[in-house]
Amino acid sequence: MWDTLIVSPLGWIIRNIYYLVNDYGIALILFTILTRIILFPLGYKSQKGLMRTQQLQPIIAEIQKKYKDDREKLNLELSKIYQKYNINPMGGCLPLLIQLPILFALIKVIYHPLQYIVGVPIEKINELYSLTGIAQNNEIYLANNPTAIENLRQLGYQAVNFNFFGINLGEIPKLNQLNELWIFPILAAVVTYLSSWVTQRTSQNQSAEQQAQLNTMTYMMPLMTLIFAFQMPNGAALYWTISSLLAMAQQYLLSIYFKKHLKPLEIDEKDMTKSMRRSQKKKMVKDSNNKNEDKEE
């Protein structure tokens, strides 16, 4: 079921891109760009919802303070506020929840390049294991084996060239061997940190608890990325690096766009906090003064 619905279609897409550009690394990059384009409407809606939620943050903070000792009442009041202003508090998690299955499916495609990218039948792959003496479930090593490559060429299959600027994207980096394979895991961790940093800078009106969570994620996510990147082929780290760069650029540009074009929520006066009422009065006074100055001119 998993293979039929997600893994095989992704393998088919990457296979066709690879045969078009004849470069494994470029194929992964183009695939990443394609997935970001497809997911853009969802990311747009998600970030818009987050910006709306930030406008309600003073109200949310007041409710959390008022009902801090009554969890049930707190959740009920927050639910009422979200429903009243048509906001989904979990909307920001949806893009990530969709990207994770894509990442896991892509990892399987990367681990099984002959099956999903080259399109070699399972029966033939098993024959190649017997022919080369390579242990089962080491399809990446099989795809790099000269005997297997020559055998596939005789049958009309195109071998996968994992070389990308001198780095084998099919190999798994090792902590005890410092070499060029470390480049993409480190890049993935650095870009993940920068992405978290941009998230902090583009988030406004966050509560102290939310800000603390963001601070923790800023350092935890790069560390987790680095650990995972040293357990997977470099192709997965390349995908994560490009995907994070595109997500970071999208988040930054959308935050600028929404700051200019997103209309403020019309907050019901009875929901307003004291600070919101003061801000509203100051704005009204400022607007009134500006109108008077325009009339005098």
Q: Outline, from the CA principal axes?
A: elongated
Q: Tell me the fraction of residues in β-strands, as a range.
A: under 5%
If strands are numbered along the chain, what order do they take across the biggest sheet?
1-2
Number of helices: 13
Helical fraction equals: over 70%
| Strand segment count | 2
Task: Report the major sheet.
Answer: 2 strands, antiparallel
Given as residue ranges, the uncertain stretches (5+ residues, pLDDT < 50) are none
Mean pLDDT: 82
Distance between the termini: 72 Å
Helix and strand sequence = HHHHHHHHHEEHHHH
| Backbone structural class | mainly alpha
Radius of gyration: 26 Å
Structure report:
With 297 residues, the protein is mostly helical. The protein is 74% helix and 1% strand. It is built from 13 helices and two strands. It has helices at residues 2-21, 24-55, 57-66, 71-84, 94-111, 113-118, 122-132, 139-144, 146-154, 183-202, 208-229, 234-261, 274-296; strands at 163-164, 167-168. Strands 1-2 form a two-stranded antiparallel sheet.
